[in-house]
Automatic annotation (TrEMBL):
Protein's UniProt name: Isoaspartyl peptidase/L-asparaginase
GO molecular function: asparaginase activity; beta-aspartyl-peptidase activity
A Pfam cross-reference name: Asparaginase_2
Catalytic activity: Cleavage of a beta-linked Asp residue from the N-terminus of a polypeptide; L-asparagine + H2O = L-aspartate + NH4(+)
Residues flagged as site, Cleavage: 123-124
Length: 268
């Protein structure tokens, strides 16, 4: 069922410990503001939240936007009010801040620092999935760019940029410099290339190359097509990724890495 698959996509994100929820990067005021999106390729339904504070798992809130409202995106105070109405408890903002994220923030307060370049070493968390019926989904969550302006919204919460899913083609989740990704609508661009006959690898490379030549932007993507073929590509120095197919776990960090480990099949 699609809802079972959507749960797995969500679960894959909230269990990660990269740039979301606890340990997110901080804005210029030293606060956590988070963006998230989730999309169901079966009927193109989607939900997203942006600039949310005091929410431990923003991807859960994005899913509720998708399932409980007629809207695609709620932001800031409106998203917080919706969270309360749905019974999602707020957590004190300080609980989401780690010493590591605070130290990053302090370093980028110094004159001559480059938060954009620094951001390329950090991690948005994304997931794509396909079930046995061919239904695809994507989800992406992030704390955004370190030392960003208060209220800044990046690519993650924007449908077609931070992620996109369509059963007829596949699903994409993106990471990287948000403003660059938004300028080229990277996730949808990659699916466009796939619609026109490219493989997942070819489309991912073409999308990243287009972003580099057009706006000098760097990033990374994970992609799956409607046949279950997948790829993880990036133009940054590294990107942590993992994939499971046919009881095999694939993972890597640096260009060209693809470690393979056999895993037991999940009980049905």
């Amino acid at each position: 069922m699609i809802h079972s698959m959507m749960s797995q996509v969500t679960l894959g994100i909230i269990q990660e410990l990269l740039s979301l929820g606890h340990g997110s990067v901080l804005n210029e005021e030293g606060e956590v503001e988070m963006d998230a999106i989730i999309m169901d390729g079966k009927d193109l339904t989607s939900g997203a939240v942006s600039a949310v504070k005091c929410i431990a798992n923003p991807i859960k809130l994005a899913r509720l936007v998708m399932e409980k409202t007629n809207h695609l995106l709620l932001t800031s105070q409106g998203a917080s009010l919706f969270a309360k109405a749905q019974g999602i408890s707020e957590v004190p903002g300080e609980q989401l801040i780690t010493e590591r994220s605070r130290e990053r923030w302090r370093k980028n307060l110094k004159p001559g620092s480059n938060p954009v370049a620094y951001q390329l070493g950090l991690g948005t968390v994304g997931a794509v999935a396909i079930d046995r019926q061919g239904n695809v989904a994507c989800a992406t969550s992030t704390g955004g760019m370190t030392n960003k302006m208060v209220g800044r919204v990046g690519d993650t919460a924007c449908i077609g940029s931070g992620g996109y899913a369509n059963n007829s083609v596949g699903a994409v989740s993106t990471t990287g410099h948000g403003e660059s990704i938004m300028k080229v609508i990277l996730a949808r661009l990659i699916l466009h290339y796939m619609e026109n006959g490219m493989s997942t690898e070819e489309a991912a490379d073409a999308g990243l190359n287009y972003m580099k030549t057009q706006v000098d932007g760097s990033g990374g993507v994970i992609v799956v097509n409607s046949a279950g073929e997948w790829t993880a590509k990036f133009s940054t120095k590294q990107m942590s990724w993992a994939a499971i197919k046919d009881d095999q776990l694939h993972c890597g960090i640096h260009t060209g890495e693809n470690e393979i480990v056999s895993v037991a099949a999940s009980p049905q």
